[in-house]
Amino acid sequence: MQEQQLRLYRLPELLSFFARTRRFGVLDRIANALGPDQALAALYDALRIFRSSCLSGDRGEDCPSNAKEVVEKAKYEVEKIAELLLDPRRAEEGLRLARTAALLALGR
User: Fold this and answer.
1) If you write DSSP's letter for every residue of 26-80 in order, what string do you get?
2) Which Pfam family, just one, is annotated for this protein (predicted)?
3) Looking at the 3D structure of the chain, how many domains does it have?
4) Least enclosed by CB within 10 Å: which of 34, 47, 63, 69?
5) Tell me: the pLDDT tens digits for 1-50?
């Protein structure tokens, strides 16, 4: 049975916040993660920073107006990438998807 490839839409949209705000270190950590643990930690930090920056009472001007919706819609992609990263047989696929999300974020 052939596995269906996960297409990334919302996670790159969320991560593009870091390109807009010139916080490239967050994207670099995702793109350069050497293993699943590093990738998970980098994704965790990205989500935490986005939520605290864009879903708090004093959200920044660089945040999307639909920040809550972006987080909700990115949730599926984040869950699927985390599943792949936690499966030793599919961890490389998870790393490639996380790196792709960071790359697509730079292009937005």
Assistant:
1) HHHHHHT--SHHHHHHHHHHHHHHHHHHHSSTT--TTS-TTHHHHHHHHHHHHHH
2) Cas_Csa5
3) 1
4) 34
5) 345 577 898 999 999 999 999 999 999 999 999 999 999 999 999 999 99
